[in-house]
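Thread amino acids onto this structure.
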């Protein structure tokens, strides 16, 4: 759990000084903004943790649809949504922290092995995603599923760290490119 928190602290430190312009900037029209990357990090964690949670104490538990609605633009390209723009950094930080708090709660409970792929299917169904949308999310959910099979808590934590680290690298690159583009 400490490793998850440490990686999140590094991410939050990396983005704390970003203004709305930097968060919304795209290196090219099809490129992903830093804001979208932050939502994506939180959205993948939200889906994976909810997949674990449904096989916990209450298999009828429902994912938080309001939170999902806020995170869904993290899959803007995959789900053909408009990217979220005009949001201050604090909005992204709040969403990341809200998801992480829920993750820590789930990860602290007694561990029950779960088959992540079928569990994710149930979560996506409960969120109301149609078959086409679910297929569009297979690739972005591939990294966590390739690392974590749901049998051990540790592999799930490593999958979340790997996913966040990968996108933190993209964020660092976007910050650099944004600074170059803004130079006179």
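Threaded sequence (184 positions):
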């Amino acid at each position: 759990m400490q490793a998850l928190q440490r990686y999140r602290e590094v991410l939050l430190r990396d983005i704390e000084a970003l203004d709305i312009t930097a968060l919304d900037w795209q290196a090219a029209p099809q490129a992903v903004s830093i804001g979208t990357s932050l939502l994506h990090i939180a959205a993948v964690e939200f889906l994976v943790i909810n997949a674990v949670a449904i096989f916990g104490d209450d298999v009828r538990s429902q994912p938080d649809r309001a939170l999902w609605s806020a995170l869904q633009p993290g899959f803007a390209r995959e789900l053909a949504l408009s990217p979220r723009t005009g949001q201050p950094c604090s909005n992204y930080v709040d969403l990341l922290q809200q998801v992480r708090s829920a993750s820590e709660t789930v990860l602290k409970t007694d561990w029950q092995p779960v088959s992540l792929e079928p569990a994710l299917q149930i979560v996506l169904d409960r969120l109301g995603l149609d078959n086409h949308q679910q297929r569009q999310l297979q690739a972005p959910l591939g990294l966590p599923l390739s690392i974590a099979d749901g049998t051990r808590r540790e592999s799930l934590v490593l999958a979340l760290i790997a996913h966040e680290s990968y996108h933190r690298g993209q964020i660092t690159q976007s910050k650099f490119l944004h600074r170059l583009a803004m130079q006179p």
